[in-house]
Amino acid sequence: MNKAVETNGECRADSVMLSDDAVKLIAEIEELKKQRGALIMAHYYQRGEIQSLADCIGDSLALARQAARTDAPVIVMCGVHFMGETAKLLSPDKVVLVPDINAGCSLADSCPAPDLEAFIKSHPGHTVISYVNTSAAVKALSDVVVTSGNADKIIESLPADEKIIFGPDRNLGSYINQRTGRNMVLWPGACHVHERFSLEKILELKKQHPGAHILVHPECPAPVRLVADRIGSTAALLKYAVSMPAGSEFIVATESGILVEMERMCPDKKFIPAPPTDSTCGCNDCNFMKLNTLVKLRDCLRDMSPAIEIDPALADRARKPIDRMLEISDRLGI
Ligand code: 13P
To answer: 219 with 189: CB under 8 angstroms?
Structure first.
């Protein structure tokens, strides 16, 4: 299949190989999408066939921005549950569908709102900064939300003596502490995908590909970050790869879905997925992200379900720190 898709104003040709069944399903999805007036959004960690038909693909920050500005009456968020919630918070009058309501996030699950509330009470006088990978209930307890694409700059923009609680990702938190010289109090959560990267296996790969650049997401533990040539959000890692000369090689330590867009944008470069510790397979996949399939995407558009619903009073509180993130990001030009 070869088709052009609008993504953030750019046109991209799809090079994902599709079976006949997939081509049929995609035709059904395109038809339903037209009938519903829907916008299909996909995170870089989605299956290739979903990325290939999405109207826009991006990292958490780009998807939040797109959800805030779309005119479409229906948004289908192909990602995990908190991404659907973020879209609903920013577009409360729209129907926000998710292909699989059980597509959760280990990081969001590592921070239940009642536990965070008690943690905040035990640290009076602290500003609460939450990563976007959190439930609406956790966002409602937060002062500012950040993504991996803007966390360090937003935190740097706060007064140097501001006392901060950062959660739930301890790895991203320690990375920001290191970069900014802050001493934020960290919630002890982690992403089950990024925690599984193995430094030994990355170093073995580096021996086989001595010229390869090591690309690392900041949700990875400190020893993996230490060997990185570039640390950044999925969009930042992609941008770095695009900026390197033809023939470059990259070892990629983030969820393997990002390789779809890296290979599409850089057909003249080589991308090697960094393997997890506990597997003989080369890729580190998020089982939650991969719950979304073409069949479920077709079904959710056909049935207009599952849809994200958030209690309006909770939504009002949870929206404020996201709006604050978008305002600060705009002001800082991120
Ligand atoms: P970004 O999309 O900000 O790179 O973060 C990835 C992620 O954590 C998705 O769960």
So the answer is: no
Superfamily the domain 197-273 falls into: NadA-like (3.40.50.10800)
**Cis before 168 (ω within 30):** yes
- Residue type for position 168: P
Six-digit token string for 160: 């140097």
User: What is the CA(272)–ligand 1 centre distance, in A?
Assistant: 19
Rounded to two decimals, what is the model's pTM? 0.92
Section 132-153 average pLDDT: 97
DSSP single-letter state for residue 93: T
Was domain 107-190+313-332 assigned CATH 3.40.50.10800? Answer: yes
- 2-102+289-303 shares its CATH topology with 197-273: yes
How many Cα atoms sit within 13 Å of 84 on the Cβ side? Answer: 26
Residue type at position 259: L
- Which of 202, 260, 227 is closest to 48 using CA atoms? 260
Q: What is the mean pLDDT of the chain?
A: 93
Q: Does domain 2-102+289-303 have CATH number 3.40.50.2000?
A: no
134 lines ligand 1 (CB under 6 A): no
pLDDT digits (tens, 9 = 90+) for 204-220: 999 999 999 999 999 99
Helix (H) or strand (E) holding 314: helix 312-332
Q: Is residue 284 in contact with ligand 1, taking CB distance under 6 Å?
A: no
